[in-house]
Write a structure and sequence with these properties.
single chain; alpha+beta; two-stranded antiparallel sheet; 3 helices; 6 strands
Length: 129
């Protein structure tokens, strides 16, 4: 059942009352004073924007999507880029994933982490692009 908030007309105190949706939304206390109902703005996200730092937000927004797996990967990449832009070019979530990956594989680095690195040796240089 929904919770409704009422404000006392004189003292300004608030009370939460559980009422059915089909009931009259009126609250009268023991002294016979009718309290004023307080309305709050909706908490619905109408922009469709996903908070790049909120994992639950990503799951909720993409859970009911009818897109492809590629669409999901693209959205995930966009959020990673947004986190990196806010954090000086490095996505901390991605970095943590890479660190966990290396720990589980006895120090072996993730292939994506090695993509744009240059290895140098005596008389040779390898650049991964």
């Amino acid at each position: 059942m929904p919770v409704y908030v009422y404000e006392h007309p004189e003292s300004g105190s608030f009370i939460e009352v559980i009422q059915g949706m089909n009931e009259d939304h009126i609250y009268v206390d023991e002294e016979g004073t009718e309290w004023n109902r307080v309305f709050f703005p909706s908490e619905l996200n109408t922009t469709g924007r996903i908070d790049p730092w909120n994992q639950a937000d990503f799951i909720n927004k993409t859970g009911n999507d009818s897109g492809t797996l590629g669409d999901l990967a693209d959205r995930s990449k966009d959020l990673s880029e947004a986190r990196a832009a806010e954090n000086g070019g490095i996505d901390p979530v991605k970095q943590k994933y890479f660190e966990d990956y290396a720990k589980k594989r006895r120090g072996a680095r993730h292939p994506e982490e090695n993509k744009k690195k240059t290895s140098k040796g005596k008389g040779w240089e390898i650049t991964n692009d």
